[in-house]
């Protein structure tokens, strides 16, 4: 099938207000003086779209956003980066959050739950048409996207999703976890990452599950084999963890869509995620393919040669 899109990103568009806190957790006080408060476009779907686009993959983002100032920020971000964005009106307004960022880069996010309504949906015709033109779909766990999963499956497109800080028990995440071919999840809230990863495989479609663990690296479950992948040292000072998990997913997808081994995909993800931690939250920035492959070659010369293209894979 001829495709025009490498990665179709569904959902996850929104706006964050970034507050640099003196520490986390923040002790109760009447007020604090902080260095800066900045509002900018960029939530999980935006970060994935920016990251895969920077890695040279043909990208299209579809989501519901409001006819408001926050929506204008989302539209402007995509226009500036040259990333196609297809919008469905969101009556309650564009999703927004407040992110408190500690001096060591740790983050606490507060999401505005008022921006979602029970009837929110991505149109069937839109999802079906874009899926038919795509190699792969990365689905954010925002509410309307759950209803798009059966359409994507029917279209035959492969699916990835990021469950973020799922505890392995909350039912809301299960539709996403069990419908995807490739599942990402943070290990932060998992008492036993391997157990949860194996349950995802047993109950769902995935044969590859990745649990990211921040500075401790990541865990892989591929065709029943569980392993650990070490983290990659950032090449600059860590300032912010916003978007690091999304960047990891994008790097992993670069390798996965090219048929690379899972550990090499995880290396790409670790490099991309480490880079994201060196970028301040006010800037939605991502490593490009050249820089990622160069870093991969430094860390693993075999990976670098394969990624550069050996005549057996198609790199678009």
From TrEMBL:
This is PfkB domain protein. Keywords: Kinase, Transferase. CDD domains: adenosine_kinase. Residues 9-279 form the Carbohydrate kinase PfkB domain. InterPro entries: Carboh/pur_kinase_PfkB_CS (IPR002173), PfkB_dom (IPR011611), Ribokinase-like (IPR029056). It comes from the Bacteria. GO terms for molecular function: kinase activity. PROSITE patterns: PFKB_KINASES_2.
């Amino acid at each position: 099938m001829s495709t025009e899109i490498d990665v179709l990103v569904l959902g996850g568009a929104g706006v964050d207000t970034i507050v640099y806190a003196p520490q986390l957790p923040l002790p109760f006080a009447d007020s604090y003086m902080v260095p800066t408060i900045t509002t900018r476009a960029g939530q999980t779907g935006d970060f994935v779209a920016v990251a895969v686009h920077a890695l040279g993959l043909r990208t299209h983002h579809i989501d519901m956003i409001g006819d408001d100032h926050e929506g204008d920020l989302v539209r402007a971000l995509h226009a500036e980066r040259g990333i196609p964005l297809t919008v469905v009106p969101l009556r309650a307004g564009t999703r927004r959050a407040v992110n408190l960022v500690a001096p060591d880069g740790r983050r606490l996010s507060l999401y505005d739950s008022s921006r979602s309504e029970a009837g929110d949906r991505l149109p069937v015709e839109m999802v079906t048409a874009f899926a038919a033109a795509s190699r792969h779909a990365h689905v954010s766990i925002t509410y309307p996207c759950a209803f798009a999963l059966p359409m994507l499956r029917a279209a035959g497109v492969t699916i990835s999703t990021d469950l973020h800080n799922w505890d392995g028990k909350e039912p809301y995440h299960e539709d996403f976890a069990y419908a995807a071919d490739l599942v990402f999840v943070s290990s932060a809230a998992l008492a036993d990452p391997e157990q949860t990863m194996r349950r995802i495989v047993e109950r769902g479609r995935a044969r590859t599950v990745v649990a990211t663990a921040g500075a401790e690296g990541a865990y892989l479950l591929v065709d029943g084999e569980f392993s650990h992948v070490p983290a990659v040292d950032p090449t600059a000072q860590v300032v912010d963890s916003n978007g690091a998990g999304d960047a990891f997913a994008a790097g992993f997808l670069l390798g996965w869509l090219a048929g690379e081994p899972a550990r090499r995909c995880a290396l790409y993800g670790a490099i991309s995620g480490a880079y994201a931690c060196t970028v301040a939250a006010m800037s939605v920035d991502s490593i490009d393919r050249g820089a990622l492959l160069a870093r991969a070659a430094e860390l693993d010369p075999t990976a670098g040669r394969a990624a550069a293209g050996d005549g057996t894979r198609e790199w678009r």
